[in-house]
Amino acid sequence: MVYHPDKQSNNNEASDIFIRIQEAFNVLSDPTKRHIYDVYGKSGLDADWQIMERRKTAQEMQEEYERIQRIRAQQRLEERTHPEGTFSMMINATSLFDENQFDDEYYDPQIMLPDITALSITQSIQAPLSPSHTATLTGNLQTKNGNGHVNPVAAFYGTFVPLAIYAGVHYLIIRPYRKQEKERQSEESEESLTNETKRRKEEAEATIKMMKQSSQRKIDAEERKLGLVITEAWYGRFVSEDSSRTSKLIDVRIPLQNLVENSKLQLPAGITKSGLPGFYDPCPGSEIKLKVVYKFRGGVHKASFDDRDAVRIPLRSHSVDYEPSN
User: Fold this and answer.
1) pTM (two decimals)
2) How far apart are CA 189 and CA 228, in angstroms?
3) 110, 116 in Cβ contact below 8 A?
4) Residue 131: phi, psi to the nearest 5?
5) Could you read off the pLDDT of 208-264 as tens digits, one per residue?
6) 238 vs 289: CA distance, rounded Å
7) What is the residue extent of each domain of the chain?
8) What is the CA radius of gyration of the chain?
9) Which end of the chain, N or C, is less packed with Cβ atoms under 10 Å?
10) Nearest in space to 251 (alpha carbons), one of 197, 292, 303, 286
């Protein structure tokens, strides 16, 4: 085993890589975990699966996972908005205790009914603007037992003025603040992405350093039998000459040669190659490819693959001298 800590001088780096390889092997060798990883990625493997029965099928587990995610999304929404509401009502029940309620002179059939003197409804929700700032929107409706007349001035100020104030605050304060906050978060995300890319690069370089000897042994063995020898291998963003963007590539010849077994190299479809030992994504968010130049049976071959394409080499169609038959 190339990455076993006992076979490397740097035990810490070798131990980290060896643990990750063991985890990957456990996932790929378990059909259920493999299905979860193919559908949901690593976040699916980290989900709280122990609440389900062990005998459930892959389809049932997928449905259960989606149900759990919907529940958690609803919980997160409620935690963010934190809706609250109150309802209050004031009742005047003094008529029930009036001593003169049965006197003929004062008798009124409605006097025994309690009066609703006031009614109030309040509702509020919270709108997170940032991790440290939250806006609270509150609505309040009140009614009191009056003489039934409508004051148009009060109705205007009570209806349209709050709406105008809300619109002004939203467009002049909240929207610019959110835009500024979004730009700040974008900058932080880019910085975090840069740090993650740097970390992955250091890990890949350490991995390549450990596999150099085993890769060279495979090259020597393949050359003796005119087998598969990787002469060039580039992974990353390839651009055309007329493009304003620049290419961003990493050399993956050594890690790719290390994957050759019995003059063959086969990688499954549907999985990004940035997770292979010695690989990393040099430009996250861009369309990346793998381009390979290799020798086989004394002939030169070239091939290009999208990031999630299956890789099968050698193939006759990759030969630079290949001419398809009509």
Assistant:
1) 0.50
2) 41
3) no
4) -60, -20
5) 888 888 889 999 999 999 999 999 999 998 887 666 566 789 999 999 999 999 999
6) 7
7) 5-78, 82-147, 203-318
8) 35
9) C
10) 292
